[in-house]
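Lecture notes, structural biology module. Today: joint structure prediction for complexes of two components.
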Amino acid sequence: MEYPFGAIERKWQQTWRERRIFNAPQKSDKPKYYVLSMFPYPSGVLHIGHASNYSIGDAITRLKLMEGYSVLQPMGYDSFGMPAENYAILHNSHPRLTTEENIAAMREQFDGMGFGLDWEREVSTCRPEYYRWGQYIFKRMYEKGLVYRKKSFQNWCEDCQTVLANEQVEEGTCWRCHGAVEQKELEQWYFKITDYAEELLDFSKVIDWPERVMTMQKNWINKSEGAKIDFVLENQDTKVPIFTTRPDTIFGVTFMALPPEHPLVQQWLAEPNADAALKDFCHKVINADKMLRSSAETVKEGVFSGKYCINPLNGDRVQIWITNYVLMDYGTGAVMAVPAHDQRDFDFAKKYDIPMKIVIQNPAKSLVLSEMQEAYTEPGIIVNSGKFDGMDSEAAKAAITAWVAENNWGEQTLTYRLRDWGISRQRYWGNPIPVIHCPKCGVVLVPDKDLPVKLPDNVQVGRTTSNPLLSVPEWLNVKCPQCGADARRETDTMDTFVDSSWYFARYADPKNTAQPFDPQLAKYWLPVDQYIGGIEHAVMHLMYARFVHKFMRDMGWVDSDEPFARLLTQGMVTKDGAKMSKSKGNTVDPQYIIDRFGADTLRVFLMFASPPEKDVEWSDDGLMGSFRFLNRVWRLIDTHQELIRKGLETTSDGDLSAEIADLRYHTHFAISRWHDDCLHRMQYNTAIAATMELLNAIIAIKAPEKLNEAELAIYAFACAALPKMLYPFAPHIAEELWQVLGAAKLLHDCGLPKFDKQYLCRDSVTYVVQINGKLRGKLEVPADIDHEELKALALEVENVKRSLEGFSIKKVIVVPGKMVSIAVASS
RNA sequence: GCGAAAGUGGCGGAAUUGGCAGACGCGCUGGACUUAGGAUCCAGUGAGGUUAAACUCGUAGGGGUUCGAGUCCCCUCUUUCGCACCA
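The predicted structure, tokenised, for the full assembly:
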């Protein structure tokens, strides 16, 4: 007989809704706790990955409620972007309509899972009441100098018909569609995330983040210290700044390397007498696959530009080469090449027969140019460097930099790999950038009173070669708010990562119509105490959100330095060892599981199969195991409910059988483990295992109706612990059984299951006896036994005695409560 | 190539501080029951060995520290992830 999960789940979902259990109060006597799972794109269908992810957040939510916190667990939808646009095209509809339909469908499925979400705080990024404030934030950032426009080569995804930020290019492909990314010269809007590079490297204000995520962000930002030094074009005043971390090698520069994108190179190419070979080379490199080009294995190539520049330190005349191995994106986009002391420059110089110059000697073994097979990149003694000769190269770094600064040739500087965040997207379904281009006034921000700039509805969506917004003249053409002249709206929309960079703050005050959120409310709820989401957002979303949060802090809107105090990166659900996907045909439909076995069964399986940060391998058999487990709990309590209710009203004083004393120990032990696993270790799989062990211990009592009053009290206590222990994972059945046992209150309001330390101490303890680390016997002794007495007893254990024959005892060690270890040597 | 994490039965996983390896679940084997179920209950289940014990081996492989190592140290292999010409 299966327990009636369907009726139970519907009943409690309705009760929670009616009693507003999960609608977080704006004010509370209790301490606050903000649990947030990354919001989904509203696909319209609940995926097993959603079920898994949100089960974790919900377990934490219910635990924190039991613990006495005022908990906020909101939910919303990341509803702008390509997928929504494509979905609408596929269904021959409009993204506004399909998105709202999908949201309604998903909401129903979320409720079917029994998630305790505060739906009164729902946000959806594509609704004007939300994106209005995204535009408002854009404007405030603009006013603070954190937004600018720049024309340059962009990562262009042909499939998505839009540009991508550097972070959004994965192995040369688009992070979303994995189409090829090429370079295209465009004028784009940027957020100056680099202003916060230094602070983004600092994770001292987060409480608990995975080391891995912090490392990934640090690597992404990649700070390096060095010097910026101006070389000067021969016979001209034009400066060519370079960045180097090795100023100690500057006297060894024999050529300069520039990428084809370098402005100087572009200028030379534009000259009427530009060299044809140079043109061809630049064209080839710029249009080459970006992934291939930036791979260390790619053969270094270049063309001599015919131009020279002057090394300011020694006046050397240096050839300028255009190469494929220098990145326009990093440092100043120009490299002083020191082939003797840099492997890349060495390879290049060998290939093109460019001279080399040793300026650092290996103290162990003198370098000879003609014999060098690779660059010498280690520290050493400075040579051929004028007044710095003889110095230690490490010390020379500072000395040379200081000399450079003194002579105004350059300065000490920091550089980061992190680039500014390009937020322009040439798509319809996104947040319009609130800007008007006026032929007289230039860039004019849309006045706050005119926000939001609403997306027009009458647009032909589809894969177009230009931004669909260009085809809506009544939207596009406006009067300049400053001078009233005919002007045009900006048609770029914002990267959807902008929308998701502040939503966690909007949840604090989601209906505010006067500002993004009331700072008082945001200061109350933020930071998010526990954030949960996929590792795939380790760099992009999490770094953008940290950046925008720091901006909001600087505006005084929030007062925390970090948006997410604790971060849990959950694993994905796999089947047959691979990520579930339609194309592989290895998907599982959570709705079918819910209909057939109940949401509680699904949740218990997902939480039991592995710790939250690890992947879960789907198993139909495993799911059945969870279903049987819940059925066993159900049968136990349902069958004995009257007995248990009676037992709950009696006290536990009186004689106990050994069996019941044992049950009492197991009960308190299981609850204490559950506490540790749920509250400290966040290892929910073992918390469920502890609950199963308790169930097994209770079921082992075969005839509870024959127990005396004291024993029955212990039995009932054990049974009553089960619903509480199950509540975070299987809340519906837990709530139902709790009611069956006669409770008046709902479980979230009844506190954590309690255990008593005194019952964790046992009268007698089993010690194991080891000889040289090998198990040789066991003995049962009183827990408070004297160690000397214990040693003596251990030596008398039959098997131990036999094993000791022919050996002499060197040492006997007692590990309290656990073992006696005997070290022996053959005699 | 660099960096990080990991490697435990047939499977998912447990072992929290260096202290009985394999909790819990799945699967499997044998049995009971019959309302024949995706049911329930009982017993067993790392490998070898034995009638049964004893005992031996065993946490990717090899060495080491220790009375004692899945756990600490060194080397090697494999897998996953991140970075990958960053000047």
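Point to remember: The domain at 223-416 of chain A is CATH 3.90.740.10 (Isoleucyl-tRNA Synthetase; domain 2).
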